[in-house]
Amino acid sequence: MNRAPRKYANYIPIRELEAVEQQLSPFQVYAELRENTPVRYDEHRECWDIFRYEDVQYVLKNPKLFSSARDRANTSMLTTDPPKHKQLRDLVNQAFTPRAIEALAPRIQEIADELITPRLSQGQMNLVDDLATPLPVIVIAELLGVPAKDRQKFKVWSDALVKGARDDSDEAFQELMEEKKRNQQELAIYFTAIMEERRQQPQDDLISLLLAAEIEGKKLSEEELVGFCILLLAAGNETTTNLITNAVRILAEQPELQQRLREHPEHVASAVEETLRYYPPIVAIGRIAKETVELNGQTIQEGTQVISWVGSANRDSDVFGNAEQFVEDRKPNRHMGFGFGIHFCLGAPLARLEARVVLHTMLQQMQDIKLVPGTTLQPIQSAFVFGVKEYPIQFESLKQS
């Protein structure tokens, strides 16, 4: 067992979720797995799957036992362990302080208004293409200092970064890895060119900050810089796109919730938290066992992959009362929608702010938000991302045009 995994398990779909209906709503499957096989070995994906809250939290909070490093160059915070991880994180934290994020609120509101206002008179919009994708892309592009006009490219790249294999065959996995490799090369070329420009002419942006930064007297390598930019691009928009879309999907599925939140706008922030629990954008997080560990009566061998199903943990009734219900003012809400431990999502405050602004704006300007009748939803092709490719909505405008 003590060998590098042949395939990265988080890119391979689990067989229990083969049907589209189950991918669109996997929570009953999670409940059965949580109950019947809370820690189980999947021969096909060559990994352990963990489904209960307590066990998932144990894996994520113990980097000494469960490593984030994979058999690839450790160029981003996602794939490094301490102490390197802390050094990289502390560096980027400068741009993601609560004060720095709150200062973005007026600009985020401006972007939301620019995207939403033209649609109000039409009474419908394609939520993913018209709002949930462009808003976080524009925000992260401006933060990084890359042209927002390239946002269509960002969308293509981001989709490829989180994409999973079409099925669990070796051919599908190989095809996926080749596509990801091409994608990484394109991103590296793109960001290297931008960094070259910033070396000549630094700006007030994240790429300039990273170029100037030092860890223990050493500047970041080109590879580390590119890794950072790729991580921020993917984490900065793909997760938020799905958070916004999933939140609006819940509103459409539960119309009475729209009116309650309209009457109690102070609950929008906690409704965003509950979305992260109920329909989390990321449902599974991968680790590698650094030593042989016993977990819930099972022996996990050193070198084996471990997949922590936060999408299942977030519905664990041992932790959450009425776990299968959306409770918009749930307190406390110890969900792991942004992960847990040292790899807790760095961009969480930004994603929360963007989702809050969008939901608040939509609820103030639209009522009776619903999925366009006759729409067939398609899940995103990913084993660890929960979301839909398109979500066209119709609504009544609360603003007179």
UniProtKB/TrEMBL annotation:
Supply the source organism for this entry. Paenibacillus illinoisensis
What is the superkingdom listed in this entry's lineage? Bacteria
Supply the name of the protein.
Answer: Cytochrome P450
| Similarity field | Belongs to the cytochrome P450 family.
Q: What are the entry keywords?
A: Heme, Iron, Metal-binding, Monooxygenase, Oxidoreductase
InterPro entries in alphabetical order: Cyt_P450, Cyt_P450_B, Cyt_P450_CS, Cyt_P450_sf
Where is the organism placed in the taxonomic lineage, from the top? Answer: Bacteria, Bacillati, Bacillota, Bacilli, Bacillales
Question: Which CDD domains does this entry report, sorted A to Z?
Answer: P450_EryK-like
